[in-house]
Design brief:
single chain, mainly beta, 10-stranded antiparallel beta sheet
Length: 237
């Protein structure tokens, strides 16, 4: 478990994640805000890579534990007055223009996960020129989240607690959480990563020292389907 002094996110000025403009590129959909740039990159119909960099430039680097580097071409997007929607055959990813928060849904719009509507992402500079990152989430009330990349603690329920989900005895593995609501998340992070779900501090995923925020969202009708997609993503299949 993390020490208590690490659980409270730091104070900060206003984080303005409202989407100012949108641009489609070969490597994904770019959504720019005053705070930074968000990129959504579909990796097949059931996986989307989500990258966020503070400022205006995403670092063009893929974690060396990720084996799949190509971006799928079979996706669409549309803008409405209040949202930007990205669609694959299996995923419907909706970004609120006013807050920048993402809602992850199946293609028939069954809710999987939503980010916190207010200031869903936070990046704070470290002394070595990197960033501490926080991704704030609104998990469903009866949802169960399992940590699958923490060595001896693999498969542990992460709700209402705070745990490191990286390194430990399984230092070669990327942090991976699995939900009973039909999705998983792989964090492409080399530094220690924790998951917190304690009301006093909030619900979030936190990495201690990264170039940018970078993770993969996976959906699947069965847990073994998600696990197989994780193995494929990391070159284990």
């Amino acid at each position: 478990m993390p020490p208590t002094e690490k659980l409270s996110p730091p104070g900060h000025g206003k984080i303005d994640l409202a989407v100012k403009w949108v641009m489609k590129q070969q490597d994904g959909l770019y959504l720019h805000s005053r705070y930074g740039v968000l990129r959504l990159s579909p990796i097949g119909s059931a996986i989307v890579r989500v990258t966020f960099a503070k400022g205006g430039q995403i670092v063009d680097r893929i974690n060396d534990k990720i084996a799949v580097h190509s971006v799928d071409k079979r996706w669409m997007y549309k803008e409405s007055g209040s949202t930007v929607d990205l669609m694959t055959d299996e995923l419907f990813v909706q970004v609120d223009k006013g807050t920048g928060a993402i809602r992850y849904m199946t293609r028939d719009k069954k809710l999987l996960l939503t980010e916190r509507s207010k200031e869903c992402r936070q990046l704070e500079s470290t002394t070595d020129g990197r960033f501490k990152t926080w991704l704030y989430l609104d998990w469903q009330k009866k949802e169960t989240i399992y940590g699958m990349g923490a060595g001896d603690n693999a498969g542990m329920n992460l709700r209402k607690t705070a745990r490191y989900i990286s390194h430990g005895n399984n230092i070669g593995e990327l942090p991976f959480i699995l939900s009973d609501q039909g999705y998983g998340m792989v964090l492409a992070a080399d530094s220690p990563v924790m998951c917190c779900d304690i009301p006093t501090y909030g619900s979030y995923l936190h990495a201690e020292s990264e170039e940018q925020m970078d993770f993969y969202f996976i959906t699947g009708k069965r847990q073994n389907t998600i696990m197989n997609a994780y193995a494929y993503l990391c070159g284990k299949l």
